[in-house]
Write a structure and sequence with these properties.
By secondary structure, the chain is α+β, with helices and mostly antiparallel strands. It has a single domain, classed as Nucleoside Triphosphate Pyrophosphohydrolase. It is built from 2 helices and 7 strands, in the order ββββαβββα. The chain has a 4-stranded mixed sheet, with helices on both faces. A hairpin with a 3-residue loop joins strand 5 and strand 6. The termini are far apart. The relative contact order is 0.27.
C-alpha cells in the first residue's frame, strides 16, 4: 500500500495579480516540477500553521494564509499526495529560495505554461477560470 502524504501549498498573489511559483530542485522528490510552495503538515499543526512555517523555512518570508482554494488527492507512482492549497499574501520579507532551484512570479493566465506537479493542476485550473 502506498504511503499518503498530507501537504499544503501557498498560492501567494502580489498586487499585480501574479502568483509566486517555485521550481523543485533536482535533489527533491518530484524534481524539476513547478509547484505552489509549501510542505508537509507536522503533528498538532493546522494546515494554515504548517503553511506559514514552511514558507518561513523555505523562503524566509512571512505570509498571511487566506481562504482554501482546492483540496486534491493525487496518486503518484510511489506515493499518494493530499494537497490543500490556500490563497496567501506576503506580510514581511521578499521570498528567497533556500531549497528550490528557481522561483518566478507568473500571471494567472500563464500558469499552465509551466510544468507543474500534477497535484497542483486542479488549483491552477480553478485560478485560471476565476481570473
Amino acid at each position: 500500500m502506498k504511503k499518503t502524504v498530507h501537504v499544503v501549498g501557498a498560492i501567494i498573489e502580489n498586487d499585480k495579480k501574479e502568483i509566486f511559483c517555485a521550481l523543485r530542485s533536482p535533489n527533491m522528490t518530484l524534481a524539476n516540477y513547478w509547484e505552489f510552495p509549501g510542505g508537509k503538515i507536522e503533528e498538532n499543526e493546522t494546515p494554515q500553521q504548517a503553511l506559514a512555517r514552511e514558507i518561513e523555512e523555505e523562503f524566509n518570508c512571512e505570509i498571511a494564509v487566506g481562504e482554501k482554494v482546492e483540496d486534491t488527492t493525487y496518486e503518484y507512482e510511489k506515493f499518494i499526495v493530499r494537497l490543500e492549497t490556500y490563497m496567501s499574501i506576503i506580510l514581511n520579507g521578499v521570498p528567497t529560495a533556500l531549497e528550490h532551484a528557481d522561483t518566478k512570479w507568473v500571471p494567472r493566465d500563464q500558469l499552465l505554461s509551466l510544468d507543474f506537479a500534477p497535484a497542483d493542476i486542479p488549483a491552477i485550473e480553478k485560478l485560471v477560470a476565476e481570473k
